[in-house]
Design a protein that fits this description.
29% of the residues lie in helices and 0% in strands. By secondary structure, it is mostly helical. The protein has one domain. It is elongated and about 90 Å long. The model has no long low-confidence stretch (mean pLDDT 81).
């Protein structure tokens, strides 16, 4: 394991490795998990923190083939978009009115 990630790592910790002492699915430190041989979907309510995705075989062996997609839903995002578009439309209308009256005043003077 590299403990100092720089252009040239300075410190390494060597681990002998080997098979896991228990099946990864039996471990209790996973925040959320799913398992199976075919397509899997995991829905998880995210909490504050730093998270990582781990994809592995149930027995910890090599040769994992995965096509991973991650998505998120933001319930208030549609209203944020509507609000920003409304403000943009209002500013566009104000700009149009200012241009109209500015051009009209220039012709009369």
């Amino acid at each position: 394991m590299v403990t100092d990630l720089a252009e040239h790592p300075k410190e390494y910790t060597l681990h002998s490795g080997g098979p896991p002492s228990a099946a990864p699915a039996a471990q209790r430190f996973w925040a959320a998990s799913t398992q199976g041989a075919s397509q899997q979907t995991l829905t998880w309510d995210v909490r504050e923190g730093s998270w990582q995705v781990v994809v592995m075989n149930a027995d910890g062996s090599r040769a994992v083939d995965v096509d991973l997609a991650i998505g998120a839903r933001f319930s208030g995002l549609i209203w944020l978009g509507v609000g920003l578009l409304s403000v943009a439309a209002l500013l566009l209308a104000i700009g149009g009115v200012l241009i109209y009256f500015g051009a009209r005043m220039r012709r009369t003077t």
